[in-house]
């Protein structure tokens, strides 16, 4: 009654916000989290900790060269080496559903609620599927030139090296998820400039190698680690367990349908599996040997979703999921020419008529030799542009590069003040001119 001066739209918006707040309060997230935590800890009677290496106190001191000690000879500058985290003990994540409780447990619970409320609110909006939004070359170039990086849009979101990222498709708020090498997932509301803009959760034991917001319900964030595929459901404040591997083999996944109910999962040992979220239990529906020694990425065709492309070792092949069997699978098509290890392969976003791969053979005269301290590059298509892709770079000054499918370099995102590291993992917003790059220290850069 006290808002008669507002327009009809503003009154409706205020009413929605009020109802959402009541709904969120009714969920009693922290009470549910406490119950789930009690269940989880009850299932695991003791906490397994990573063992510290024993100190060899009586071991004879051996001479080590300056090269092994990473000490530069006099007068020669050291090459840039990312800081490596010290080994530390931390509790293992149990199997089964996990409460959506941040790393610091119940501290700053209000800040955590703010982040989760934002995620829930922007997920309630009916998101129209981004279709053919191709721009002519000059307009696309102008949009790239207009994107910039500021100090407030650089933030350390996870503790260790970024291994995967996902960006929420909301057109109102920039909301990013990042997974690191230790199993942490950080959620960052880029538009929020307060202390609680980013919160960290630990739903995995190993590196989070692949993440996607569900295209059907963006209140769900699916994340994959070596041993498990989980779905973070903000409406219930729980990380559900969808599939578990006893061999710690999972490498990547992608949805096989628009409802995100089925997925194809790649394995480090070369196999692929098909998972159906609608069936009970945490086992896959089908395991198939596709003849690979290693499968690093899998990606489903954007139009004909029975096809998926797998990449690993020197192999890049397309398969038809309808004809997968346990052994003896033949590819529909093989993309030859790679002479060294392939890091990724993805279909173009609109038609799927193109495939971009990243290989250690440095094609496009592009330096892909990241070494062992950096996450390997993955070239990703701009969802808004059928023939342009984004990839990290080893060039100095540090930058993120945009290429056309012809090999032409269209643009280099760089900033001498706020980007001084290699961004191996990048993600592009499906409808807005937003690019996020993640580095080896857990820091995200938003252009």
TrEMBL record:
Example GO BP: regulation of DNA damage checkpoint
Entry keyword set: Repeat, WD repeat
GO molecular function: DNA binding
SMART domains documented for this protein: WD40
GO cellular component, one term: nucleus
Residue span of region Disordered: 40-63
Top-level taxonomic group: Eukaryota
Job description of the protein: Specifically binds 5-hydroxymethylcytosine (5hmC), suggesting that it acts as a specific reader of 5hmC.
Family classification: Belongs to the WD repeat DDB2/WDR76 family.
Identification of the protein by name: WD repeat-containing protein 76
Lineage: Eukaryota, Metazoa, Chordata, Craniata, Vertebrata
